[in-house]
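Everyone, study these two lines:
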Amino acid sequence: MICLFLTVFAYVFKTGWTGVNERTFIAVKPDGVQRRLVGEIIRRFERKGFKLVGLKFLQASDEQLRDHYRDLREKPFFNGLLKYMNSGPVVAMVWQGMDVVKTSRRMLGETNPADSLPGTIRGDYCVEVGRNVIHGSDSVESAQREISIWFKEHELVCWEESTEHWIYA
């Protein structure tokens, strides 16, 4: 039974199926870790009703960062971004839930904290775009790619949340 579930899970994960099983990648950046915001960020996602299925505290490798930010490699700030992201540990997470990608982007706020509303993570905790505390996938496809950079499939935990019927109709 477990093997069948895992096979179905692997298919769902790779095809980008949405719904309650949609997943996103969230990373608390080095400034967020140094400022001790990890617990607050996790609290916000849990209170929203999303399910944590992967969590790592690590020093990102240069290879991970280059792969993660490959779309920005031609930008003039690329090397500075890599230096910043390699300046301390990060907390990499995978969250699951209905419309988790779109909803988490709203929870994070705008990339530039000056454009972020109060009540968002960046609106409440950030001042400068170069130190904006948190990263979140911007699409289901990006989430799948980013999750595969930071997590192996066996590191993601499938579990049944006892409160799920109170969150989803």
